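Worked example 3. Consider a protein that binds glutamine.
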Amino acid sequence: MSADIWTIGRMLEWMQGYLAKRGDESPLVSARWLLSHATGLSNMQLYLDLKRPLSPEELDALRAGVKRRGAGEPLQYITGTASFRHIELSVREGVLIPRPETEILVSEVLSRLPSRRYNVSDADDDAEAIERTVKVVDLCTGTGCVACSLAHENPLIEVVATDVSVACVELARENVGALGLEGAVAVVECDLGQGVSEAWLGAIDAVVSNPPYVPTSVLAEVPAEVRDHEPSLALDGGPDGLDVFRRIVPWAHAALKSGGFLAVELHETTLDEAAAIARAAGFAATKVVRDLAGRSRVLIANKEES
Ligand code: GLN
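Given these inputs, the predicted complex is written out as structure tokens:
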């Protein structure tokens, strides 16, 4: 009889084999991730409960999920969630899945802005009374991962996040709401900085962006999982990867306050050229920051103090 019962352990083994045959490079990770999602159990709980039978609903969810994963769909689209720094975000097809390298963009921005972290000794109403006085604009926000992390991790930061894609704007607003950041992050549907209010122009502390930056020729070589499922609007940076960056730079230079800075994630082959573009547009100093794999990844460009 037990051969007919689908337990967590039996399912884990079967899914791992199925996904390996379909070319999944990390079949065990995928299987565990899908099982966690279907059962609501943590990784650790799954292993402690390998003999637990799966319910018909759990089996249905797993069959559908493993089929999609076997066809090469990213796990985050299947589960509908992605972790980014200290937050969980909803994700879905049509919007770029947050990447680990973008977490570095956020650290670089946070480390350059005045900060105040919530303190356990703060009375609750004190914490709420903190005014958000640091102005940040996040261009091409996608899921809203950068904007939400900045506001979540530093209660002084207020963000205007923009995206030209309606799907992104809708999802970013959902994420802002789910994280309780309505008072801190406003999401605007517009091309780059066009929809940022006049009152902010010249008063912005930081402009941050993870724009589409993959050179078109490189796009053909990205993994099928990315190419076939993620939006090319979020990836394609034109012939040299800097098409969108070139449009961001003059706007950012005009919109930043003196002493403010621009921080942009870019393709590893383009940072020197990007730095030259920023200096030619009037930025005083530039710095290139590497990602965890040691590749040039983030450009910081400072506007001179007046
Ligand atoms: N890092 C992403 C990738 O290589 C690209 C993100 C982007 O173009 N903004 O898939």
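Take a moment to read the result before moving on. The mean pLDDT is 95. The first strand starts at residue 81 and ends at 84.
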